[in-house]
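note to self — DONT lose this again. spent like an hour looking for the file last time. sequence + predicted structure for the chain T wanted, 119 res
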Amino acid sequence: MQLHARRRQDPDTGSTREPTQVVSDRSLVVRNYDGTEAHEVRVTFLDPDGDRAFARTVAVASLETIAIQTRLERAVYRVRVRLDDEETDSAECLVGSGPDETALVETGNGTVSVAEGLF
């Protein structure tokens, strides 16, 4: 399975391209289901000791899906998310190399959720 991100313009050439990202290479996927609003999503992975293993803030355009490679070791992490500095959610997720070992963050209608796996 592949995810397709929205078309991006190359700043050097001005041409647009549609990047393709293979899900199995990514351990974090952020989807925005809002049809008209962009959001800022803060994602933090905590290891079993409660230490921060990875953190990233991403701007997600309306109807955009972003796949991110965290380069974390395969393990269960507590994944915490914050939407626009308001709504929050967290879940324990097995993060590894397959689509079922991915943290999935979804936004829509002013809410945010995190779950393990893409399916």
